[in-house]
Amino acid sequence: MARNIQKTFAGIHALSDVSLEIRSGDIHALMGENGAGKSTLMNILAGLFQPDSGEIHLRGRPVIIKNPHDAIRKGIAMIHQELMPIPDMTVAENIALGHEPTLGMAGWIDRHAMKQEAERLLGLLGVNISATRTMRELSVAEIQTVEIARALGRNAGLLIMDEPTSAISDREVEALFAVIRTLARSGVAIVYISHKMDEIFRIADTITVLRDGKYVGTHPAVDLDKRKLISLMVGRDLTATILEDRKVHGEPVLEVNRLGKTGLFREISFNLRRGEILGVAGLMGAGRTEVMNALFGLDPADTGDIVVNKKKARIRCPADAMRLGIGMVTEDRKGCGIVPTMTVEHNTTLSALTRCCAGEFIIHKREHAIIDENIQLFGIKTSGRRQEINQLSGGNQQKVVIAKTLLTQPSIVILDEPTRGIDIGAKAEVYAIINRLAREGKAVILVSSELPEILSLTDRILVMRQGSVAAELDPRQTSQEEILKYAMPI
Amino acid sequence: MIIRSSKHFIGMFLLLLSALIYSGCNRDAAPDKKTATDGSRQLVVGVSLMNLSSEFIVLINKAMLESAKDMGIKLIITDAQRSAEKQVQQIETFIGQKVDAIILNPCEVEASSPAVDTAIAAGIPIINVNSATKSTPTAFVGSSDEESGRIAMEYIVKRLSGTGNILIMQGYMGQAAQIKRDQGADEVLAKNAGIKVLARQTAEWDRAKAMSLMENWIQTFGSKVNAVYAHNDEMAMGALIALENAKLKDKIVVVGVDAIADAVQAVKAGRLDATVFQDAAGQGRTAVKLAVKIAKKEPFEKETFIPFQLVTKENVDKFAR
Amino acid sequence: MQCPSDKSKSAMLAYVLKQYGIVIALILICTALSFCSPHFLTWPNLITVTRQISLNGILAVGVTFVLLTGGVDLSLGSLVALTGVVAASFAHPGDYPLIIPVMAGILAGMACGAANGVVITRGRVAPFIVTLGMMTIARGLALVISGGKPVSNMSPSMTRLGGDFLGLPIPVLVLCGISAVSWLFLKNVRLGRYIYAVGGNENAARAAGINVNGVKLLAYTICGAMAGLAGVILAARITTGQPNAGLAYELDAIAAAVIGGTSLSGGIGGVGGTLLGALLMGVINNGLDLLNVSSYYQQIVKGIIIVGAVWLDRKHGK
């Protein structure tokens, strides 16, 4: 389908000589670390970029895809990692967006036909979402299904999905996979991009691996296993992260007593000690992020106490939390992690700017020294401290956010989904950072949807379900199945 | 989309409604036509003024209120804030209130005409004060703006003894006053070939804009200029300050129109050469008198012109307020 | 990468245009004007241009603070009128020493700016609406205080503020002063950095422990103070406090900032660009007057040049 594609950005090869062939009805996984060129290749197919050389064949004929609109006309649809629904429009309106059925010359929108079409498409996918609900009310997984329905409505012959499961729970993944399989059976070719190995092996028929903008190989999924795939992606064998043995814990630094917030969570109690890593598991919407936001003052709780270092704390805003030595890496990196208009340097020092100041004045030399040290310490891949953070890959942005948080020298570190949407190499580095923090005697809370991550890193696991704590488990004596058992709504 | 945004429509509707109620309260919903002491009922006259933040209009307003008090009638004053559309609405409200007469100080020649038409159609006498509309009102009180242009330009011709270069600062382009003040000046210029107009440019009646314009002119024309004619005093003052800053005032004659307090002061101090006095108080008083006459069905003049007067250092004391 | 030199050349060109697009536009226009009018490139005319941009420049620097936080201030023009009237009311000969009217004007502007900021942050009302309200409130206050008439009879010490000092216009010196201080503030002071952060991503700024409301309040207050300063200078320049002065000045100020590369959505821009934007607008104004272009055409030409300058900037900035 695509042959010898090349693309260069600002003098850096994003893709060189990559070829890819996708057959209809095939679920084709595209694998590679961040920066391997997956997104660039897919953006070329979807018409967002033009290749510098090479050609694209569609159903045997060479084509030029001028822009996203053109791609849709030619039957190529892409579902982006960050979904872009119009929140106040209904499901039917979003599905019809851009080609609304109209009555007569004046272009009156035929609402009835629009709704019927939406229901038909959603029915084809075997899901039960009312066409008259607004997008705002839907869960991430439901929004994804709507986007798929929208692509289906355009008679897409090729559907590109970029990390569709990065923000949805395991149960929803199952439903999504069912939808994808239905589509594939009806002859749609699917390109599936993900970092999650388990999923790839569950869903994909064929796997193509890219590395550093180069084509590595295409294999039937049955011929590969996790180890082989990882070594193809990374170019070397990567030993699994190790569970460190840290039995000695210090005194409790954080005690949470019966914390509650109407409609979100209730009766949350737990404690946290120095040098401990506390895992928080649960499905999306179980209230994990909401509890963390309350602890950090982003969205304070209504009832209950937070005790920090044996003193009752009043946390009304993040500044309060930071004064008490709490630091947090938020779940939503784009939304409240980075300032996209600022440089790597200014993002890193934002929380701890006083450390670069004499009085109110910023001492630029001091700031440069701090940022250079952190770029090294966290292995941030950037062309320089003055690069705009937007130009970094997700994993490197995340490292900047973590560096920013740690610069405030917190004694309690909350990490909410720190490895979401970042590649395997960066994940391993984040794990190393987490272990190092605990070794240094900091108390760490790790919220994650990836159970293997929680099981291998933490000392204790809190499972949340529907806004309250369902269980406290010992990772050495539990399993993914047991955690899921507690996490499932009753 | 439409279903959702109906919420907004309701919100907008409520907002509009409350605005209507508010403005209704503000404007004496129904003028109480109390019986006056002499047994006949008190006359009510609606007034729509162009812009109450202009000093000249404020003076007209003051004179009207004073004479209304003397004559025992009631005035409803509204300010159209330079919007002809608002003006038409105000006249419609007056008609709804069944006032006895309307005094209109039009914002624009064309756009304010519907106000006159609707009043005449409703059988309510309407008197234009200060400036004209395309439609003919029941009566007109004002001064002919051409005359002010003529007086100002004749003064300049006299001062320059018939030869010299001048600059003209125009008012807001397209307004009656700008057009007529140009026309009056042009009549005089046509008869005096020795006077050459170097440039004509608008400063939109505004002092700060006039100052900038004059500064730029000084760069271009420098000492070639012999006189500046500004369509109003605000602009004349702006030009004056720019010339004084450039130390050129001694050589250049500056003349404005309107005789606002600041300009009269400047004439008195010998800074400004002349201005043309337009009798705001006279216009306001005459308009109210006419309104009463017409309402009482007494005979009246269709057009009353209050004459302009040239203000120079010699007669300035008569005009100092 | 078949022909690397070509690529890097075009990349270089794009970079230069992005960084210096406005400077290039300014140089082009100035060159054209100096050929068209012998009066343009003379010392007195250049002084005149700087004098004429000083008011818009001060307002534009003020509004840059607000734009950087992602807000907008539409009340500037009215604030100029109000503060001018306030200052003029204290500036009659023999009333008070010069410092009183000057401070009264600036404080009145600060108070209105702070009021904008408080309603926007505490009341969570959109800046567009709040400052639109302040636009009419301030205009109304100016008319009330002045009684609808210009406040004249100003002391000579006050009017001297509109004049020259050591051969340079005082308004220009003031503009230079506040620009330098603002530039230093935004670049070297902690709160300055926070202004950029709040405009770039308000949520991230909050999560970084920044008092977002405080930063916004500061920006609106600074903007109000600048409007007060501009009001005082305008009153001194035209020797009266005019209640109907400053109509639509806010649009010129915002235009100058945006032409200079400040983003209307916040987080990007700065004082340097804003000054260039004001200069570009001033040069166009001056040039069209020098060439005696008819008033009707002036408006068209101005509009085209403003949109063209920004368009050029954005097109190559991508």
Describe, in short, the structure shown:
The complex is a heterotrimer of chains A (490), B (321) and C (318). Helix content of chain A is 33%, strand content 26%. The radius of gyration of chain A is 24 Å and the shape is globular.
Structural features:
heterotrimer, A: 490 residues, alpha/beta, six-stranded mixed beta sheet, 24 strands, globular, B: 321 residues, Rossmann fold, six-stranded parallel beta sheet, 10 helices, 46% helix, disordered N terminus
Architecture overview:
The complex is a heterotrimer of chains A (490), B (321) and C (318). Chain A is of the alpha/beta class. Chain A has a six-stranded mixed β-sheet, with helices on both faces. A six-stranded mixed β-sheet of chain A has the order 18-21-22-15-23-24, sandwiched between helices. Chain B has two domains: 44-143 and 280-306, Rossmann fold (3-Layer(aba) Sandwich); 145-277, 3-Layer(aba) Sandwich (Rossmann fold), CATH 3.40.50. With 321 residues, chain B is α/β, with parallel strands linked by helices. Chain C has a single domain (39-316), classed as ABC transporter involved in vitamin B12 uptake, BtuC, CATH 1.10.3470. Chain C contains 13 helices and two strands; from the N terminus they run ααααααββααααααα. In chain C, α3 packs across α11, α8 packs across α10 (212-238) and α11 (249-259) packs across α12. The longest helix of chain C is centred in the first third of the chain and has 33 residues, at 4-36. Chains A and B meet through loops of A and loops of B.
